[in-house]
TrEMBL record:
The lineage of its organism: Bacteria, Pseudomonadati, Bacteroidota, Bacteroidia, Bacteroidales. Keywords: Signal. It comes from Dysgonomonas mossii. Residues 1-22 form the signal peptide. PANTHER family: PROTEIN TOLB (PTHR36842:SF1), PROTEIN TOLB HOMOLOG (PTHR36842). The keyword RNA-binding does not apply. This is DUF5050 domain-containing protein. Belongs to the TolB family.
Length: 323
């Protein structure tokens, strides 16, 4: 036997070596992530709405600027009732949203230039259809929305609307390259999360938790998205999950709790989302929070501006983050 090798083996086994006998020891150590004590510093804008109740039709829309700390109600002088569920264009210069048109007296889809020099433009004035939940495509040239309980797509250059699903589909959101739409099918305990291929119009169910509601999917990145799902049949509070376009098993995020609803997550970056929650300590029914999807820390949006959360329901958050 090699004498040098034997001596090294003895030294290592006695724990007297001045170096690690396992070159991978450092890689195998599990480090406890640092505790996050404050909300992240952000540069960009948040748009959201609040109302007393949905049926009251008193929804107003607000924009908050993270850089200037300015909070402004932008819908105050619009000739539109009950504006809600806004979504930023990819360049952050426009929003699309749903509201009840003055001329149509039904839900329509609007486009608004954030320069604020004109009234929002009604994109769906035809046929008296009920149009809701608009979202820009990644290239900003299309808007997916719900029309008379079907998922549809509006080409902003031609004005053409293409219906992509049968009845009972809603809340569409594009994947990263704009070739597919994640959406909700049905309502309540029988609802599910489905994906629509825009070119072929084929539809595939990805998630269907039994006896609870699955809804409000929002894309996160090239492989995953967030959505809301009921905790259980006996405790139906909403929880935020990360789902996967491939259909891999979805994951409940660590900030969830059963003390209230946690829903409608909108990604800020890889680590943070803005959510709506009725958790303990909320000022109204729903308040806005920013939550860490890795560590589970959660902070009220009043940490940015004390007037964001109110006794009303704050809902429909969307952010445009400046690079």
């Amino acid at each position: 036997m090699n004498t040098y090798w034997l001596k090294s083996l003895i030294i290592c086994s006695l724990g007297l070596s001045l170096f690690s006998c396992n070159d991978n020891d450092d890689n195998n150590k599990t480090e406890t992530p640092p505790v996050i004590t404050e909300a992240p510093t952000l540069k960009g804008k948040l748009v959201y709405h609040n109302y007393t109740t949905y049926d009251t039709e008193d929804s107003k829309m607000y924009i908050y600027d993270f850089g200037t700390n300015e909070l402004k109600c932008i819908s105050e002088n619009w000739k539109i009732r009950n504006a809600m569920n806004a979504h930023f264009s990819p360049d952050g210069k426009q929003i699309t949203f749903m509201g009840i048109g003055e001329d149509t007296n039904t839900w329509d889809i609007f486009l608004y230039d954030l320069s604020g020099t004109t009234q929002p433009v009604n994109l769906t004035t035809y046929d008296g259809t009920r149009d809701e939940d608009p979202k820009f495509s990644p290239d900003g040239k299309r808007i997916a929305f719900k029309q008379d309980f079907r998922v549809a797509e509006l080409n902003l250059e031609t004005g053409k609307v293409t219906k992509l699903s049968p009845v009972d589909y809603s809340m569409p959101y594009y994947n990263a390259d704009g070739t597919k739409l994640i959406c909700s099918k049905g309502d309540g305990a029988t609802s599910s999360i489905a994906v629509i291929d825009i070119k072929s119009k084929s539809i595939k169910t990805l998630y269907d938790a039994p006896k609870v509601q699955d809804y409000y999917p929002i894309n996160a990145d090239e492989t995953s998205f967030y959505y809301s799902v009921g905790y259980s049949e006996t405790n139906r509070v909403d929880q935020v999950y990360r789902g996967f376009w491939s259909g891999l098993k979805s994951k409940r995020l660590p900030f969830n709790n059963t003390d209230g609803d946690y829903s409608d997550a909108y990604p800020v970056n890889n680590d943070w989302v803005i959510i709506c929650s009725t958790r303990t300590g909320s000022l109204g029914g729903y308040d806005l929070y920013i939550a860490n999807v890795v560590s589970g820390e959660i902070f009220p949006m009043t940490d940015y501006n004390k007037n964001i959360n109110t006794p009303k329901n704050e809902l429909g958050p969307c952010v445009y983050i400046q690079k």
